[in-house]
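W.,

You were right to be curious about this one. When I first looked at the sequence I had no strong expectations either way, so I just let the prediction run and decided to look at it fresh. Below is the sequence, 170 residues in total, followed by the output.
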Amino acid sequence: MIVIQCQANIPHRRAGSGRAERIQHTGQDAFNRRRLGRLQQRKRRRPDARGKGVEGGISAGIEGGTGPVELGQVFLTSQLDDPAQRISGPDPRYPPVLQSAGIAGSVDLQFIVDTTGHVEPNSLKVLAKTHDAFVEPAKEAVMKGVYKPARYKGEPVRQQVQQRIKFQTN
């Protein structure tokens, strides 16, 4: 251990004298006082660090986790162990007028897949569209689809999904 000491003049009030005297303290004394002050501040900031557990806590903790999964929370694809995947559902019906005219297009949708694998109806939003006539068939196809629910830490969770529905002429 290397100890570097420096001299510092610190005013000091001697007990009973009523007047301040300058007493030389070494740098190590000042360092110890600062360190003691920091420790006392930490204790004041962390009142719960008294060795008591929290309600519902486990003494060994949970391996790889920071706590239970909140089932009402909506997750993004990047946060999940296993994102939602479409299992089944109808293909979107091509609007006959646009199909006969040879017009192709797409609709970008955003929605939430719940823990049972179904789309939450109130969550369905249109992000982009190439033609208004493509919107309703795209919404129908997504709403009738069945998805494998997303999983986080082994639990099924709600996931926000963005999906592009393409309409192409053959």
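Here's what jumped out at me. The beta strands are 7-13, 20-26, 74-75, 85-88, 105-113, 125-129, 146-148, 150-152, 155-167. And, maybe more interesting for your project: Residues 7-45 form one domain.

Coffee later to discuss?

I.
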